[in-house]
Amino acid sequence: MLNLAQTKSEPDEFDELLERTSLRWTLRVGAWLKRFIHNCKHKDKKLGPLLTEEIEDVRRWWIKRVQRRDRETTGYPQISGQLNLKPNAEGVMTCHGRIQGQTLIYLPNREKFTEKLVQQVHCETLHGGVALTMAAVRERYWVPKLRSLVKSVRSKCYGCKRFNATPARNPIPGQLPEDRTTVGAAFEIIGTDFAGSVKYKQGKKSQGNSYLAIFTCSLSRAIHLELMASLETDNFITCLKRFIARRRRPRVIYSDNGGTFIEAEKWLRQLR
């Protein structure tokens, strides 16, 4: 186990830039800034689009920066001895193992730059899993506790959240009432409501309004229609009498809380 006790350094404007943007954008901004400084100091101006060498130069500057900050921590001597860290020709600390010529650039795992680099590699592998992202990172860099860092990056990745999201389950259907499932005679249990208005002609120019009283069976879904001149309670009671005379007397009647139905209910209760 590597003990990485660190002291938190104060963030500066470069850290704020890296915090707000992606690694690719940060490197390009740094490359344009460095080209601007070069053109201000030298007569040989650099023109045209950015070159790969310019972007890699800024990347090395960031790597040296995070390594320099890591050397100020208390746990650096221990990790330096365990990984056999040595500077290469460009001044970048690399890990030296048993294989000659195969060195990996050391990056501390608690730096924002390292997290952004893992995010970039994760996207370049088309949102690969933990093993694929780790393998891609370790082609060039060595990061302590890389697995936990990759898991943290994947848990924050919006693309992975969309890919791994489970489809919404259909809601559990509600239970049908007993009046809808118990076998019985037609129009023994009914529901009633109004439809309309239905316009009709009165002479050549004038028009009148009429309505329909709908009686539907809760078991067979059969429908009985009665024509009403208005929505008054007396007209509905007349339609209900015609329905009972034609079909049968229902045992249960369902309706909404319309004023006409409430008054009709009072009339039916008085008949009892």
Q: Any idea of the CATH topology of the largest domain?
A: Endonuclease III, domain 1
Sum up the overall morphology in one term.
elongated
The percentage helix is 40-55%
* Class per helix and strand makeup: alpha/beta
- What distance separates the N and C termini? 87 Å
Order of strands side by side in the largest beta sheet?
A: 1-2-3-4
- Integer average pLDDT: 87
Oligomer: single chain
Task: Write up what this structure looks like.
The chain is 46% helix and 18% strand. With 272 residues, it is an alpha/beta fold. It has two domains: 152 residues, Endonuclease III, domain 1 (Orthogonal Bundle), CATH 1.10.340.70; 78 residues, Nucleotidyltransferase, domain 5, CATH 3.30.420. It has a four-stranded mixed beta sheet with strand order 1-2-3-4. A four-stranded mixed beta sheet has the order 7-6-5-8, covered by helices on one side. A hairpin with a 5-residue loop joins strand 1 and strand 2. Helix 2 crosses helix 3, helix 5 crosses helix 7 and helix 6 packs across helix 7. The longest helix is centred in the first third of the chain and has 20 residues. The chain starts with 12 loop residues before the first helix and ends with a helix. 17% of the residues are buried.
Task: Draw up the topology in text.
Elements: H1 13-20, H2 23-41, H3 52-71, H4 76-83, E1 85-87, E2 93-96, E3 103-106, H5 112-124, H6 130-137, E4 141-142, H7 146-156, H8 158-164, H9 178-181, E5 189-202, E6 206-217, E7 223-228, H10 233-246, E8 252-254, H11 259-271
Parallel strand pairs: 3-4, 5-8
Antiparallel strand pairs: 1-2, 2-3, 5-6, 6-7
Helix pairs in contact: 2-3, 5-6, 5-7, 6-7, 10-11
